[in-house]
Amino acid sequence: MTPCAGPLCTRPAVAHGLCQSHRRQELAGKALRPLRPRTGAPTVALGVRVPQEVARWLATLGVPTTAARALLVAAWEWETKGVNLQAAAWSRPR
Ligand SMILES: [Zn+2]
In which domain, by residue range, is 86 found? Predict the structure, then answer.
């Protein structure tokens, strides 16, 4: 696969070294411009590493690492939304 020669473009080239959208810009006689993202919201790639000892401890409880990862991501989302995790834990009814 040859990558598109257009600015900031990661799509494969299909004609004249350009992807479909950049080829369309070229055919329209316009200066090549970066393409808008396909969706409105930006995508954030997030890597979460569950420490080995935590994964081993969770395994003894029968909790898979994927669940631990989802929990860590949820905790991170709460933190970024300003939710105080310790306060939330203390206010939980027992
Ligand atoms: Zn392109």
Answer: 52-91
Cα gap 28→7, rounded to integer Å? 16
Is residue 63 a contact partner of residue 72, using CB atoms and an 8 Å limit?
no
Ligand 1 centroid – CA 46 distance (Å): 26
Expressed in angstroms and rounded, the spacing between residue 44 Cα and the centre of ligand 1 is: 21
Query: Could you report the per-residue pLDDT of 47-58, keeping only the tens digit for each?
Result: 777 788 888 888
46 in a domain, yes or no? Answer: no
Cross-strand pairs, 3: 12
Q: Give Cα separations from 35 to 2, 15, 25, 43, 80 (angstroms).
A: 18, 17, 10, 15, 30
